[in-house]
Records
---
Amino acid sequence: MTHPFIYRAARLDDLEALHRVMERSIARLQSQFLTPEQVAASRKVMGLDSQLVRDGTYFLAESGDRIAGCGGWSFRETLYVGDESVIAREPAVANPVSGAAKIRAMYTDPDFTRRGVGVRIIALCEEAARAAGYRRVELMATAAGVPLYENCGYRPKERLQFAHVDGVEVPLLRMEKAL
């Protein structure tokens, strides 16, 4: 199957455009699942961890001069957080045999949903994690992301959890998949 997009590793000079895609995605796609208060609070736990770009494990899909979507994987222990997150990072490297690679910071521009962008980026991440020796991947899903992840074979690892931000509960679901 061919894709009408160009997929590549993100570069540091993409950060500003990536943040714009993330903001559009959070504002428009999360609002279908969360209250306005939860969407606002989710911005404090979601977003891009620029360490992924520096590690060379963050991908994007381009359509013309636009970023259609983005997402990455990590060999580090951090499950989810962005540069602006109120949650601390865990920078230690996960053991490929006993630990799991992490799928991180998946976002699709609302103008490009339902066109296979997220599925392809997840496949790129899984291929890279497998090549690095990982046997398992896990992620922390937002309500908007759960259908995509289930479609890609991810299953809940734990019961629904909540990030508590400024008195607001943001629902999150930890999911995993064997490679």
Note: The domain at 6-138 is CATH 3.40.630.30 (Aminopeptidase).
---
Amino acid sequence: MAKNEQHWYALCVRGGRETRVAETISNAVASGSLLSTYVTQVLVPTEKRYENRTGGKRVLRERCLMPGNVFVRCNLTSECINMLLNIDNDAFRFQCLPGTRTPAIIADNQVAAFMGKVDENIENIEVENPFAVNDKVRVTTGSFTGFNGVVEEVHGKRLKVRVTVFGRETLMELDCTEVDKQ
């Protein structure tokens, strides 16, 4: 391998500790340690999704796309390997080629695909619509917060809800994230 040649490598870590390991490596690089001469980038591929909780409540969660993996762009030398493996008390190792002890290089286009998921805007997040016609709902946002209604129509993630406001029924068009099931 040529000197100063940067490639992406996968570090296998314990599940649920990807973010912590990535932050530890990033902090070591940012502090100006010797590791900063080898490592240029650290990535944990994640995506943002809405999840339904009990009671119809939806929460925005960040979910790891590849559990147990942290991607590091570095010039991999024996010194760099030793520094990375000793940086945290968590036991982690490099993902190696099958049948060898050589760390596997991850293609730049594969990492670019992960980065596209990481940089995704919140407006592009797919929201599952759990509502059906005649469901009873409560408005959770806007000037009609707290009012109850009934779903009249469902169009993708948009709902038409009939709400009783001061004794008069009013048809409102709302996003499915603006109401909760009763």
Note: The first strand starts at residue 7 and ends at 12.
